[in-house]
Task: structure prediction
Amino acid sequence: MILTLKNTFEDVGNATMFAVRFFKELFVPPYETRQFLKQCYVIGYKSLPLVAITGFIMGLVLTLQSRPTLVKFGAESWLPGMVALSLIREIAPVITALICAGKVSSGIGAELGSMKVTEQIDAMEVSAINPYNYLVVTRILATTLMVPILVFFADAIGVFGGYIGVNIHGDMSFYRYITKIFQSLEFLDLIPATIKTFFFGFFIGMIGCYKGFNASNGTESVGKAANSAVVTASLSIFIIDMLAVQITDLFFKMIKEKENTEQITNAGKKTPIIEIKDLHKTFGKDNQVLKGVNFTVNKGEDLVILGRSGSGKSVTIKCIVGLITPDKGEIKVFDENVLELKKRNSMK
Result:
């Protein structure tokens, strides 16, 4: 038991040093651009069919399984938004990362493990080629950039699969379906889901490279490196996802508390919307309708003007909207002087 824990901690320490070396070598020339683009093609483009099929099935099955429950509560209209939120926030990033862990991480581990066993890595060092820069940096960088792109692709295909699922038992236009999705999505729904995919990609590539680069001698170690890379990468994805959910929940809670504090603070402040000061209006020589009218309507308040016929209710409203010019006084709407604004418009 003690020996197992010791080996585990040693392995974690060595993997950490391996990752630190990546950041050191990342900016050290020569930059293997061609090898990086090749790995992007292998990791990204070659994985598109598998990701597309998986994403479509995820969206279709999630829609078909969720619809009966929502129909019972009369909430079938929520189906597009629920499917989109589930896919974008959690399902598509995790499932796509697991696919890449099984396909990409195992492939990298087996490839580098085979090169290690056949002493190809040693031959590169003898030839004055930095094997870490050529083999490891390019692959980790490619997985870090390609996994988020694959997740976006899975999101889009999954949403389309949800549209097909909605129309199996109903009839909804694609425009209405997309509109409902955008009505339920917020910008903050995309940020955490996107950020964690970069971490998924980094750990998928780093673990695959670490297991293959440190494979021991013998062909048996190649299979062990590939198997260990898949298991460790998959476990790391779940751990990262758990941490990301906790951090996101804490972040949203802080934003909500800040909004509540601002609402409470603003509730105590009175923001004038309409201000009437010393308003006078006389029609003819002796018919004075308004005399020294003063009142303020603050934000969130309702004002009711009551009075008998001819008491000046309509005249007050017409003065506020600018249909009648008062003889004296000041009218401000949203801190804008209505009388001065009317004069400026008449001069144009």
Strands lie at 272-283, 287-298, 328-333, 336-337.
